[in-house]
């Protein structure tokens, strides 16, 4: 587990996909992450996800936006995200919507997104329209509120923490 020092809010105008994923998974996780607490390096679930990402769709190239890294974008501006999960999650769709919003702010006309689940050979479509844009903007505002809070959010029930790399922080004695 590592903790980085410096401004606890880093550059809070820069929200990446991880921020949105953590917002949906656990606001406490987002708050800790925004302050440089990074136990992910030693987590087996994270390592497994990185291995799945590295070994699937190997012909694609990441798109680095600075604050976010998109797995890839296909012709027609369709955002693609790969997940090692065996079940679709609202956090995954929120992450793709956030990427759509970031691309749109850069003047790119985005058509939507697809979340790929190679372990179960399934995909889910993520719509990009006015409602999705509003949802992405609302998520962004919620994430900023969590990051800017002076106190750590309450922990979730322990049953929701299985596999989380932040478990020791939240539940350790």
Automatic annotation (TrEMBL):
Short name of any one Pfam family annotated for the protein: Cas_Cas4
InterPro entries per record: Dna2/Cas4_DUF83, PDDEXK-like_dom_sf
Domain of life: Bacteria
Full protein name: CRISPR-associated protein
Domain DUF83 as annotated: residue spans: 17-171
Entries under Gene3D superfamilies matching the protein: 3.90.320.10
Organism: Streptomyces marincola
């Amino acid at each position: 587990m590592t903790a980085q020092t410096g401004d606890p809010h880093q550059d809070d105008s820069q929200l990446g996909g991880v921020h949105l994923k953590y917002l949906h998974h656990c606001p406490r996780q987002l708050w800790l992450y925004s302050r440089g607490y990074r136990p992910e390096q030693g987590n087996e679930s994270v390592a497994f996800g990185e291995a799945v990402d590295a070994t699937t769709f190997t012909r694609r190239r990441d798109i680095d936006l600075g604050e976010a890294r998109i797995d890839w974008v296909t012709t027609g501006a369709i955002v693609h995200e790969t997940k090692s999960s065996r079940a679709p999650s609202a956090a995954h769709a929120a992450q793709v919507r956030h990427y759509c919003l970031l691309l749109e702010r850069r003047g790119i006309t985005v058509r939507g997104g697809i979340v790929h689940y190679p372990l179960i050979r399934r995909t889910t479509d993520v719509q990009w329209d006015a409602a999705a844009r509003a949802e992405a903007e609302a998520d962004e505002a919620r994430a900023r509120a969590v990051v800017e809070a002076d106190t750590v959010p309450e922990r979730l029930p322990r049953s929701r923490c299985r596999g989380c790399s932040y478990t020791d922080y939240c539940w350790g004695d």
